[in-house]
């Protein structure tokens, strides 16, 4: 046991950078957490002496592997697969699988680190992990995606299990990919167990898992608004992305009386001044999950603006919901949002705001819900899917909707408790970091040095 003093932030992050060269997303995620945890543990010697934070920032295990598959033209293709098992102090590793060309070890390490805190915040017994591949599902046929998923799972199955590590979906991994991967796991192991979440309803899936992340992100905003005795009624909202999280965020905002005027994908954003109502949203879901088309087609269909190669943050709004990907809100974007009168941000995507952008929101003292708290609804319902699989039962939709709503409120209230800085300002970043840290850290202390 070391008795050295807790380092300052720069020394700590310097060590993280040195041990993980070039992994800028991972450095960013650790820095965001360490900036709150180092002051929090300054008067708590047990966490310092047992090097808890440093151990959390070192994954338990990383698996990297080759994924070979044959495309429709009989070419042999080679991708790289990963699973980062960050921390299982409070439960089996749990976190999504991402298929996107931008996937690197750094991206998955940041996501697995964040996931550890997020899963702790849900109050459910889940550790943190994340996996994926640089495989790009866009433009691939169904059979190519199936062959890739089967090859990916042929290696991954050795490292996961219902009590070990339970992956789910993420960018590029939806119901189709989960089905192919679950089928291959079942074939290889000759067992039907809840080893993945986000499954189809016919084979152990849970109701409302698909909606949970987007809905949860909006619920978190609803709870922040309630603290200010405000509501969604009549608010103009920006949403980025047009995938699972984005479309379900729009659905819930509409139900709560807000108006969403933007959606985006990696080629640009649409600006629909009239609002994206339920019928238009159905069009987007069909466009993205069935036809797998581009958001620009929405602008042609409904006669609104399309801004190629841009993100939506310069459109004036009351509330903003980044739901596409990491670092999609820069410092300049944050400044424009604040200047245009945006009162609150709730993050559906993981780490969508750069560190300097977060500082802008904090300085402006607007409502800002960081992803590890705001988008925890998805993994929370994944946790409920695991419980249903273990008990071999299916809960009804109303029960699950209520459980999700309660979990999001608890996450909000816990984060608000640790993050309250004055009567009228809550620093939810600090609140979520500290609330997520304490449970994992105390479990690690109980285990001794492992
Ligand atoms: P989807 O694959 O369903 O959708 C992703 C969306 O983001 C697409 O519109 C995609 O556009 C866009 N996008 C992806 N990469 C980029 C990029 N580099 N620049 C601009 N747009 C981009 O993924 P999800 O909706 O599931 O995930 C979105 C975010 O939410 C991710 O950060 C994910 O980690 C996070 N998240 C998801 C959860 C879930 O339950 N699904 C749970 C918690 C967090 P295009 O089609 O052009 O690539």
Structural write-up:
The protein is of the alpha/beta class. It folds into three domains: 9-56, no CATH class; 61-195, 3-Layer(aba) Sandwich (Rossmann fold), CATH 3.40.50.10860; 211-369, Rossmann fold (3-Layer(aba) Sandwich). The protein is built from 17 helices and 14 strands. It has a seven-stranded mixed β-sheet with strand order 9-8-7-6-10-11-12, sandwiched between helices. A five-stranded mixed β-sheet has the order 1-2-4-3-5. Helix 8 (209-227) packs across helix 9. The protein is globular, with a radius of gyration of 21 Å. The chain starts with 8 loop residues before the first helix and ends with a helix. NADPH dihydro-nicotinamide-adenine-dinucleotide phosphate (NDP) binds next to helix 9.
Please tell me the CATH architecture of the largest domain by its name. Answer: 3-Layer(aba) Sandwich
CATH topology of the largest domain: Rossmann fold
Specify the number of helices: 17
Read across the widest sheet, the strand sequence of neighbours is: 9-8-7-6-10-11-12
Which secondary-structure class do the elements indicate?
Answer: alpha/beta
Cα end-to-end separation: 12 Å
Q: How many strand elements?
A: 14
Number of self-contained structural domains: 3
Residue-averaged pLDDT, rounded?
97
Nearest-angstrom radius of gyration? Answer: 21 Å
Ions, cofactors and other bound molecules: NADPH dihydro-nicotinamide-adenine-dinucleotide phosphate
Residue share in helix: 40-55%
């Amino acid at each position: 046991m070391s008795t050295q003093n807790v380092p300052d932030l720069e020394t700590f992050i310097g060590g993280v950078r040195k041990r993980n060269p070039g992994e800028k997303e991972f450095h960013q995620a650790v820095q965001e957490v360490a900036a709150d945890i180092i002051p929090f543990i300054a008067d708590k010697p047990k966490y310092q002496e047992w090097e808890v934070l440093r151990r959390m920032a070192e994954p338990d295990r990383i698996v990297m592997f080759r994924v070979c598959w044959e495309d429709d033209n009989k070419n042999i293709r080679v991708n790289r697969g990963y699973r980062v098992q960050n921390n299982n102090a409070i439960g089996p590793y749990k976190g999504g699988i991402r298929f996107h060309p931008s996937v690197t070890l750094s991206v998955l390490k940041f996501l697995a680190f964040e996931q550890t805190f997020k899963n702790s915040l849900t109050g459910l017994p889940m550790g943190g992990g994340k996996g994926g591949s640089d495989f790009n599902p866009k433009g691939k046929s169904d059979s190519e995606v199936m062959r890739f998923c089967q090859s990916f799972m042929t290696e991954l199955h050795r490292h996961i299990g219902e009590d070990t590590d339970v992956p789910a979906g993420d960018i590029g991994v939806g119901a189709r990919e989960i089905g192919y991967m679950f089928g291959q796991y079942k074939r290889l192991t000759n067992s039907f167990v809840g080893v993945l979440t986000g499954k189809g309803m016919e084979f152990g899936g849970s109701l409302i898992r698909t909606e949970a992340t987007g809905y949860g992100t909006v619920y978190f905003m609803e709870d922040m608004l309630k603290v200010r005795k405000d509501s969604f009624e009549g608010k103009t909202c920006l949403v980025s992305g047009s995938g699972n999280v984005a479309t379900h965020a729009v659905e819930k905002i509409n139900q709560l009386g807000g108006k969403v005027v933007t959606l985006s994908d990696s080629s640009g954003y649409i600006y629909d001044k009239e609002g994206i109502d339920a019928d238009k949203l159905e069009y987007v879901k069909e466009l993205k999950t069935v036809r797998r088309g581009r958001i620009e087609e929405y602008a042609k269909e409904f006669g609104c603006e399309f801004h190629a190669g841009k993100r939506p943050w310069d459109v004036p709004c009351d509330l903003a919901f980044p739901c596409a990907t990491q670092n999609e809100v820069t410092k300049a974007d944050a400044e424009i949002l604040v200047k245009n009168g945006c009162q609150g941000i709730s993050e559906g995507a993981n780490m969508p705001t750069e560190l300097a952008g977060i500082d802008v929101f904090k300085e402006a003292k607007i409502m800002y819900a960081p992803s590890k708290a705001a988008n925890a609804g998805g993994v929370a319902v994944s946790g409920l899917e695991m419980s249903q699989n273990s008990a071999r039962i299916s809960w009804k939709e109303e029960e699950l909707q209520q459980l999700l709503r309660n979990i999001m409120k608890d996450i909000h209230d816990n984060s608000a408790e640790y993050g309250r800085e004055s009567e009228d300002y809550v620093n939810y970043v600090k609140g979520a970091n500290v609330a997520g840290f304490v449970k994992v850290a105390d479990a690690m202390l109980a285990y001794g040095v492992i």
